[in-house]
Design brief:
Strands 1-2 form a two-stranded antiparallel ribbon. About 65% of the residues lie in helices and about 5% in strands. With about 150 residues, the protein is mainly α. Helix 1 (about 5-35) crosses helix 5 (about 110-135), helix 2 (about 40-50) crosses helix 5 and helix 5 (about 110-135) packs across helix 6.
């Protein structure tokens, strides 16, 4: 294959379209969450992921799992957790069975903020997808996102 191979060109164009769609959606949601709740997309995602933890077997996520879930490095995730902890939205504590492990829980204040922000996030996502669907290059990707069913 050469650099001008049509298959590579189509693949690169598809990737660019997907990247463009993601960027537009994230920027739209970011503006909405910041304006209404003082949250970034990453902060909202972190609160959402951590709010799904439970006390049962495997119910608490280690920092590496949290980082993977919010698509950040472990160090960036730690900084994000610290910022939200400073705002009283998260707490950290040592794992009771492994003193090296540190878990993070969403506080009541964090849960309340997340519940207020959830409709904003969902509405902004819908708006961004509707806007992108009007672009012929992005419309097929929007359709794929709308029909995709992924377990939470």
């Amino acid at each position: 294959m050469t650099a001008t191979d049509p298959a590579l060109t189509a693949l690169a164009q598809g990737w660019c379209a997907l990247s463009l769609l993601h960027g537009r959606i994230e920027a739209h949601i970011e503006r909405a969450l910041q304006a209404a709740h003082g949250l970034s997309v990453r902060e909202y995602s972190l609160l959402d992921v951590l709010s799904r933890q439970h006390d049962g077997e495997g119910g608490h996520l280690q920092m590496k799992q949290v980082a993977d879930a919010v698509v950040l490095s472990q160090s960036a995730t730690t900084r994000l957790v610290t910022r939200l902890e400073d705002r009283g939205l998260l707490t950290r504590y040592l794992c009771p069975t492994d003193r090296r492990g540190i878990y993070t829980n969403v506080t009541d204040s964090g849960l309340e903020l997340l519940e207020r922000a959830r409709p904003t996030n969902e509405a902004a996502l819908r708006e961004a997808l509707d806007e992108a669907a009007r672009n012929p290059e992005l419309a097929p990707l929007v359709k794929a996102v709308e029909t995709l069913r992924v377990p939470a």
